[in-house]
Each structure stands twice: as structure tokens, then as C-alpha cells.
Amino acid sequence: MAYDNNNVFAKILRGELPCIRLYEDELTLSFMDIMPQSEGHLLVIPKESAETLLDLSEEGAQACIRTTQRMAKAVKAALQPPGIMIAQFNGAAAGQTVPHFHFHVIPRHDGLAMVA
Ligand code: 5GP
User: Fold this and answer.
1) Of 100, 102, 104, 109, which residue is the catalytic one?
2) Which domain of life is it from (predicted)?
3) For a substitution probing ligand 1, which of 98, 104, 115 has the most ligand atoms within 8 Å of its CB?
């Protein structure tokens, strides 16, 4: 399926929608999730137009995991959660609601799984 240029993360990347920006480099952007599942829930996205992991370039995938690790370490340092969940969904059938690749970084204080 063709990439939807009007999805909310594409608009955030173009500066057309506001977000709480946490980190940015040449290939990735990280910002707070608008409906956090816990305090500190943030997202990491590639700047390239990729809907799912299957569409993402190898360079984009490497950049996203690097930024995700960096942000998980920052969350650990800032909030000291006992656990941090990294979540990622591919396709609406798998629970993806925004059709631009993203990692969730979610501080966890219990053993419950994420509700997609
Ligand atoms: P998905 O279900 O696709 O894995 O997760 C999409 C995530 O994006 C959700 O956690 C949702 O709260 C978040 N989200 C949706 N729209 C916006 C938005 O406009 N701004 C921000 N910061 N997060 C959003």
C-alpha cells in the first residue's frame, strides 16, 4: 500500500502538528506520546516515509533502534521505572493505528502487557 503523506507523524515531521520533541538527529525523531500509557511514554520514528518495519530501509531501522536505546536509557535515568517496554506494530491487524513506523518506549511498573 502507498505511504499516506497525511498521517499524523508525517505532519509532525513537517512541523504541521505540534508535539513535545525530545530528541532529533539526521534520521530519527523522538517525542512524547499524546495518550501515554504511563508517565514517560514516548515514541521514536524515522524521518523516512516508511509505514511498517517491512518498508523501512536498513539504515532507517538501525537509526531507529539506536535512538530507541538512547531514549530508553534517558527514561531509565529520569524516572527509574523497574521495567521499560519497547513495542512496535505492523499493520492495522496487528494494532498499528498511525501508518508511519514507530517504536513505543513505555516505562512499566507492573507485569501487564500493552493493550493495542
Ligand atoms: P500505534 O497504535 O500505531 O502503535 O500507536 C500510535 C501511537 O501514536 C498511540 O500511542 C497514540 O497515542 C499516538 N498518537 C496518535 N496521534 C498522535 C499525535 O498527534 N501526537 C502524538 N504525540 N502522538 C500521537
Assistant:
1) 102
2) Bacteria
3) 98
102 is catalytic: yes
Ligand 1 pocket, residues with Cβ under 6 angstroms: 8, 17, 19, 31-35, 89, 95-98
8-108 CATH: 3.30.428.10
3-state class (DSSP) for residue 28: strand
The pLDDT score that the predictor gives to residue 45 is: 99
Band of pLDDT at residue 38, cut at 50, 70 and 90 = very high
C-alpha closest to that of 43 among 52, 58, 33, 34: 33
Residues with Cβ within 8 Å of 6's Cβ and at least 6 positions away in sequence, in order, are none
| Predicted structure pTM score | 0.96
**Ligand 1 center from residue 33 Cα (angstroms):** 6
